[in-house]
Amino acid sequence: MKIRLSVVLLLAALCALPSLSPAAQTPAPQAESAALTTRLALRDLWVEHIFWIRDYAIANQAGNRQQADVASQQVVSNATAIANSIAPLYGQPAADQLLKLLAGHWGAVKQYSDASVSQSAAGKQAAVNDLGSNAKALAKFLSTANPNLPEATLNTMLAAHGGHHIAQIDELGKKDYKAEAVTWQHMREHILGLADALTAALVKQFPDKF
Questions:
Q1: Which residues belong to the signal peptide in this entry (predicted)?
Q2: Which of 127, 133, 194, 207 could staple 111 via S-S, CB 3.0–4.6 A?
Q3: What is the per-residue pLDDT across 151-181, written as a single tens digit (0 to 9) for each?
Protein backbone atom coordinates (compact mmCIF):
# COMPACT_ATOMS: atom_id res chain seq x y z
CA MET A 1 0.00 0.00 0.00
CA LYS A 2 1.14 3.57 -0.67
CA ILE A 3 0.81 4.62 2.96
CA ARG A 4 2.93 1.66 4.10
CA LEU A 5 5.71 2.59 1.70
CA SER A 6 5.48 6.23 2.68
CA VAL A 7 6.44 5.67 6.29
CA VAL A 8 9.61 3.78 5.38
CA LEU A 9 10.62 6.42 2.86
CA LEU A 10 9.67 9.21 5.23
CA LEU A 11 11.69 7.87 8.13
CA ALA A 12 14.66 7.15 5.89
CA ALA A 13 14.60 10.70 4.58
CA LEU A 14 14.22 12.17 8.06
CA CYS A 15 17.15 10.17 9.41
CA ALA A 16 19.33 11.49 6.60
CA LEU A 17 18.69 15.12 7.53
CA PRO A 18 21.49 16.99 9.33
CA SER A 19 20.88 18.47 12.76
CA LEU A 20 19.23 21.87 12.48
CA SER A 21 19.78 24.93 14.61
CA PRO A 22 16.74 26.18 16.61
CA ALA A 23 16.22 28.97 14.09
CA ALA A 24 16.14 26.53 11.19
CA GLN A 25 14.02 23.81 12.75
CA THR A 26 11.08 22.38 10.83
CA PRO A 27 7.93 24.48 11.30
CA ALA A 28 5.30 22.98 13.59
CA PRO A 29 2.76 22.21 10.83
CA GLN A 30 5.32 20.11 8.93
CA ALA A 31 6.38 18.36 12.13
CA GLU A 32 2.77 17.52 12.86
CA SER A 33 2.39 16.23 9.32
CA ALA A 34 5.40 13.91 9.67
CA ALA A 35 4.07 12.51 12.94
CA LEU A 36 0.59 12.14 11.47
CA THR A 37 1.88 10.35 8.38
CA THR A 38 3.79 7.92 10.58
CA ARG A 39 0.76 7.38 12.81
CA LEU A 40 -1.52 6.60 9.88
CA ALA A 41 1.06 4.32 8.27
CA LEU A 42 1.57 2.29 11.45
CA ARG A 43 -2.18 2.06 11.94
CA ASP A 44 -2.50 0.70 8.42
CA LEU A 45 0.25 -1.87 8.96
CA TRP A 46 -1.15 -3.17 12.24
CA VAL A 47 -4.72 -3.38 10.93
CA GLU A 48 -3.38 -5.42 8.02
CA HIS A 49 -1.79 -7.72 10.61
CA ILE A 50 -5.13 -8.60 12.20
CA PHE A 51 -6.94 -8.65 8.84
CA TRP A 52 -4.70 -11.28 7.26
CA ILE A 53 -4.55 -13.44 10.37
CA ARG A 54 -8.35 -13.40 10.50
CA ASP A 55 -8.41 -14.32 6.81
CA TYR A 56 -6.14 -17.29 7.54
CA ALA A 57 -8.32 -18.45 10.43
CA ILE A 58 -11.47 -18.28 8.29
CA ALA A 59 -9.84 -20.18 5.42
CA ASN A 60 -8.36 -22.72 7.81
CA GLN A 61 -11.74 -23.44 9.37
CA ALA A 62 -13.28 -23.81 5.90
CA GLY A 63 -10.51 -26.12 4.70
CA ASN A 64 -9.62 -23.72 1.89
CA ARG A 65 -5.90 -24.43 1.56
CA GLN A 66 -5.32 -22.00 -1.30
CA GLN A 67 -6.86 -19.08 0.56
CA ALA A 68 -5.03 -20.04 3.76
CA ASP A 69 -1.68 -20.16 1.96
CA VAL A 70 -2.19 -16.72 0.42
CA ALA A 71 -3.26 -15.28 3.77
CA SER A 72 -0.21 -16.82 5.46
CA GLN A 73 2.09 -15.26 2.87
CA GLN A 74 0.45 -11.89 3.44
CA VAL A 75 0.90 -12.18 7.20
CA VAL A 76 4.64 -12.71 6.69
CA SER A 77 4.86 -9.87 4.16
CA ASN A 78 3.08 -7.55 6.57
CA ALA A 79 5.33 -8.56 9.47
CA THR A 80 8.35 -7.79 7.30
CA ALA A 81 6.95 -4.34 6.51
CA ILE A 82 6.29 -3.62 10.19
CA ALA A 83 9.81 -4.69 11.15
CA ASN A 84 11.49 -2.75 8.35
CA SER A 85 9.60 0.41 9.28
CA ILE A 86 11.85 0.80 12.34
CA ALA A 87 15.12 0.25 10.45
CA PRO A 88 15.73 3.95 9.62
CA LEU A 89 15.63 4.82 13.33
CA TYR A 90 17.02 1.72 15.05
CA GLY A 91 19.04 0.00 12.31
CA GLN A 92 18.52 -3.16 10.28
CA PRO A 93 19.71 -5.55 13.04
CA ALA A 94 16.91 -4.25 15.28
CA ALA A 95 14.43 -4.64 12.43
CA ASP A 96 15.59 -8.21 11.90
CA GLN A 97 15.14 -8.97 15.60
CA LEU A 98 11.65 -7.50 15.56
CA LEU A 99 10.80 -9.64 12.54
CA LYS A 100 11.87 -12.77 14.44
CA LEU A 101 9.61 -11.81 17.33
CA LEU A 102 6.68 -11.06 15.02
CA ALA A 103 7.28 -14.41 13.33
CA GLY A 104 7.04 -16.04 16.74
CA HIS A 105 3.74 -14.27 17.38
CA TRP A 106 2.34 -15.43 14.05
CA GLY A 107 3.66 -18.94 14.58
CA ALA A 108 1.83 -19.23 17.89
CA VAL A 109 -1.44 -17.88 16.49
CA LYS A 110 -1.19 -20.17 13.46
CA GLN A 111 -0.51 -23.13 15.73
CA TYR A 112 -3.62 -22.30 17.75
CA SER A 113 -5.73 -22.08 14.60
CA ASP A 114 -4.35 -25.36 13.27
CA ALA A 115 -4.88 -27.08 16.64
CA SER A 116 -8.42 -25.73 16.75
CA VAL A 117 -9.18 -27.28 13.38
CA SER A 118 -7.63 -30.61 14.37
CA GLN A 119 -9.29 -30.37 17.80
CA SER A 120 -6.01 -30.80 19.64
CA ALA A 121 -6.36 -29.47 23.18
CA ALA A 122 -2.65 -30.01 23.83
CA GLY A 123 -1.74 -28.12 20.67
CA LYS A 124 -3.96 -25.22 21.64
CA GLN A 125 -2.46 -25.01 25.12
CA ALA A 126 1.07 -25.09 23.74
CA ALA A 127 0.16 -22.25 21.39
CA VAL A 128 -1.28 -20.20 24.26
CA ASN A 129 1.92 -20.70 26.24
CA ASP A 130 4.06 -19.66 23.27
CA LEU A 131 1.87 -16.62 22.67
CA GLY A 132 2.35 -15.49 26.27
CA SER A 133 6.11 -15.97 26.16
CA ASN A 134 6.31 -14.11 22.88
CA ALA A 135 4.30 -11.17 24.27
CA LYS A 136 6.83 -10.84 27.09
CA ALA A 137 9.76 -10.99 24.66
CA LEU A 138 8.18 -8.38 22.38
CA ALA A 139 7.47 -6.09 25.32
CA LYS A 140 11.05 -6.38 26.55
CA PHE A 141 12.48 -5.71 23.09
CA LEU A 142 10.32 -2.65 22.43
CA SER A 143 10.75 -1.14 25.90
CA THR A 144 14.52 -1.60 25.69
CA ALA A 145 14.61 0.14 22.32
CA ASN A 146 12.36 2.97 23.47
CA PRO A 147 12.22 4.01 27.15
CA ASN A 148 8.90 5.73 26.50
CA LEU A 149 7.26 2.30 26.21
CA PRO A 150 6.90 0.78 29.70
CA GLU A 151 7.54 -2.96 29.56
CA ALA A 152 4.71 -3.89 31.92
CA THR A 153 2.18 -1.82 29.98
CA LEU A 154 3.33 -3.28 26.68
CA ASN A 155 3.15 -6.80 28.04
CA THR A 156 -0.44 -6.21 29.13
CA MET A 157 -1.39 -4.77 25.74
CA LEU A 158 0.31 -7.55 23.78
CA ALA A 159 -1.18 -10.25 26.00
CA ALA A 160 -4.63 -8.76 25.38
CA HIS A 161 -3.89 -8.71 21.65
CA GLY A 162 -3.04 -12.41 21.75
CA GLY A 163 -6.24 -13.03 23.67
CA HIS A 164 -8.22 -11.40 20.88
CA HIS A 165 -6.69 -13.80 18.35
CA ILE A 166 -7.60 -16.78 20.51
CA ALA A 167 -11.17 -15.60 21.14
CA GLN A 168 -11.66 -14.93 17.44
CA ILE A 169 -10.43 -18.37 16.39
CA ASP A 170 -12.63 -20.05 19.00
CA GLU A 171 -15.69 -18.09 17.86
CA LEU A 172 -15.04 -18.89 14.21
CA GLY A 173 -14.70 -22.56 15.13
CA LYS A 174 -18.08 -22.45 16.86
CA LYS A 175 -19.57 -20.48 13.94
CA ASP A 176 -20.55 -17.81 16.45
CA TYR A 177 -20.24 -15.01 13.93
CA LYS A 178 -22.06 -12.41 16.01
CA ALA A 179 -19.58 -12.85 18.86
CA GLU A 180 -16.69 -12.81 16.41
CA ALA A 181 -17.93 -9.54 14.94
CA VAL A 182 -17.78 -7.98 18.40
CA THR A 183 -14.31 -9.43 18.99
CA TRP A 184 -13.16 -7.98 15.66
CA GLN A 185 -14.29 -4.51 16.72
CA HIS A 186 -12.47 -4.80 20.04
CA MET A 187 -9.40 -6.19 18.30
CA ARG A 188 -9.34 -3.37 15.77
CA GLU A 189 -9.75 -0.65 18.40
CA HIS A 190 -7.05 -2.25 20.53
CA ILE A 191 -4.52 -2.60 17.70
CA LEU A 192 -5.10 1.02 16.67
CA GLY A 193 -4.37 2.02 20.25
CA LEU A 194 -1.15 0.01 20.16
CA ALA A 195 -0.11 1.61 16.87
CA ASP A 196 -0.79 5.08 18.28
CA ALA A 197 1.23 4.31 21.41
CA LEU A 198 4.17 3.21 19.28
CA THR A 199 3.96 6.38 17.19
CA ALA A 200 3.79 8.63 20.26
CA ALA A 201 6.85 6.90 21.72
CA LEU A 202 8.80 7.36 18.47
CA VAL A 203 7.96 11.05 18.27
CA LYS A 204 8.99 11.55 21.90
CA GLN A 205 12.25 9.62 21.51
CA PHE A 206 13.24 11.25 18.21
CA PRO A 207 11.77 14.78 18.31
CA ASP A 208 14.35 16.03 15.81
CA LYS A 209 13.09 13.51 13.25
CA PHE A 210 9.49 14.64 13.47
A1: 1-23
A2: 127
A3: 999 999 999 999 999 999 999 999 999 999 9
